[in-house]
Every structure is written in C-alpha cells, then in structure tokens.
Amino acid sequence: MTVGFIGTGSMGRTLIEAFIQAGKLKPADILAANRTKAKAALLAKNHPGLRVAHSNRQLAEESPCIFLCIKPKEYRAVLEEIKDVVRPNQIVVSITSPVMIRDLEEWVPAKVAKIIPSITQAVLSGNSLFVPGSRLTEEDQEMLWDLFSTVSRPLVIEERHTRIASDLASCSPAFLANLLEKLADAAVEETKIPPEAARSLVTQMAHGLGRLLTEGGFTLESLQDRVAVPGGITREGLNLLDQDVGPVFNRLIRLTHAKYDEDVQQVQHSLCTGKKV
Ligand SMILES: NC(=O)C1=CN([C@@H]2O[C@H](COP(=O)(O)OP(=O)(O)OC[C@H]3O[C@@H](n4cnc5c(N)ncnc54)[C@H](O)[C@@H]3O)[C@@H](O)[C@H]2O)C=CC1
Ligand SMILES: O=C(O)[C@@H]1CCC=N1
C-alpha cells in the first residue's frame, strides 16, 4: 500500500525514516510531497525507491493513506488543494494537535485520525498518541496501530487530552533536554569542569536513566529513593528540586495549554472562513 506524506520537515522525515528503519515500509511504498521540493528530493536520494509527488493533489490521488505532517497554519492551503480528489475509502491522518478531527471530517470525506508522534520515534521508542475519528473502521485502526507499533508504543487518548498527552510524550524530549543543558551549564559555571565533559556526563546518564525506567524495573519514585541514601548528598538536591521546580512545570503546562487554545481558535477560523460548501 502506498503511504503518502505531505510535509517532509522535521516530523514528516522522522516518521518516514522510522518506518523504513523498522522495516515496516519500503522506500517504494512511500510517496512524499513538500512545499520546498528539495527537502523531499533529498529524502528520495537517501532512500532509493521513495517517490516524490509533483503536487499534494497527485499524492492525495495516489495514496490510500495520507499523513498530513504540516503546521497548523498550513492546513487550509493543503486541504483546499486535496479536498476534491480525496475519496471516502482513503485514510487521512493529521499529526497536528490543534487541528480538530471534526473539522477535518468536514473538509474531506475520508476516514480521519489524529496521531501525535514524538521525536523519540527516530530511535523507534516513546509513545504515539491515537485519536481515532468517527469514520475509521476496526480494520483501519488495526492497520494504523500495526504501523505505529513498529516505531513506538501507540496509546489511544481522548481528543480533549491531546494537549497534555503531547506535552508529556512529544514536547518533553525538548523540555528535558533543556533541563539537562542547564544542569551541565551550571556545572561548568560553578566548577569549571570542561563543557564537553559535563554534557557527555548528563547525556550518558540520561541514556541509562531511560533504560532504568523502561527496562530496569524502577519507577520514578523508587529510583529517587534508591539513589538518595538517608542523610546523604542527593537528598539535599531533591529537597531543593521539590521546592523550586514543581511550580515551574505548573506554569509550563498552563503556557502550553494557552498557546494550544490560541492555535485551536486560529485553525478553526482559517478552516471555517470563506469555506465553499
Ligand atoms: N517536531 C516534533 O517533535 C513534533 C511535531 N509535531 C507536529 O508536526 C507538525 C509538523 O511539525 P514539524 O515537522 O516539526 O514542522 P516543519 O516546519 O519542520 O515541517 C513542516 C513541513 O511542511 C512543509 N509544508 C508547508 N506547507 C506545505 C504545503 N502547502 N504543501 C506541502 N508541504 C508543506 C514545509 O515545507 C515543511 O517541510 C506540526 O503540526 C507539529 O505540531 C507533532 C509531534 C512532534
Ligand atoms: O512544538 C510543537 O508545536 C509540536 C507539538 C509537539 C511537539 N512539537
């Protein structure tokens, strides 16, 4: 089956390469389209057999399953371009959290799903978040589940939890990388340890931490208890973090939700204004 990807930026490319790496899709199964053609052409060069569509419309005509890997503002233009050629038996998957399933279902007669991926899929790990639309059959859901199981742990979520689940699964790699960067920078500032050594130490620690939590039998709590020996040094640090860091994450979640609400409004406005019926 041909799987089409409209948008081969950061996440479109990550997904394409993850499915190829996992052996789930062959390059010849993939049809890609991107506004800047050179990006899609580079993918085709790196994965011989992968085809580049002349247009989004051609891609939509030829792909039983179409992934929309574009940003919220870009939906209107892409939907305008493909809506007349999309058929009811096709599947259209959006990877964009503030685009509502019901809006997509109004624009195309296809079977719609929202699946929010994560950069962690580049190493075939992490969760992908499934919000099935009303027209997907059991068979369609199984096909998508099977596809994403090869690169992630799929998880069904309710659409109203899209933002918070994306914060945890998709944004947090960036949030936690930022915290580790700050930890390494503070170490350099306070002790003059060479920057490369500080970054290497936190990076290798993060690798081990991920494995301890997923394969090592630890929970978030048991890991802290195991490292923080009673009366020891780690407990001093944990006490400070408990006091100062928790509120930062409350503020962070309020910020991501405020931006999300704004994006939802903008997308709905752009998808509803002047829409031909
Ligand atoms: N980057 C990440 O870690 C994650 C991103 N997402 C979502 O994925 C979506 C895409 O994000 P990124 O890949 O990071 O953005 P990006 O900006 O890297 O990629 C978007 C791509 O779409 C292309 N594009 C724009 N308009 C187009 C059009 N009319 N026709 C064809 N191609 C067009 C652009 O040229 C670009 O290559 C966003 O909605 C984002 O929220 C979801 C989960 C994780
Ligand atoms: O920053 C963003 O908008 C997207 C959503 C999830 C990850 N990246």
UniProtKB/TrEMBL annotation:
Domain Pyrroline-5-carboxylate reductase dimerisation: 159-261
Reactions performed catalytically: L-proline + NAD(+) = (S)-1-pyrroline-5-carboxylate + NADH + 2 H(+); L-proline + NADP(+) = (S)-1-pyrroline-5-carboxylate + NADPH + 2 H(+)
E.C. number: 1.5.1.2
Signal peptide start and end residues: none
Cytoplasm keyword on record: yes
Compartment list: Cytoplasm
Main localization (coarse): cytoplasm
PROSITE patterns, per the entry: P5CR
Function recorded in the entry: Catalyzes the reduction of 1-pyrroline-5-carboxylate (PCA) to L-proline.
Protein name as annotated: Pyrroline-5-carboxylate reductase
Organism in which the protein naturally occurs: Salinithrix halophila
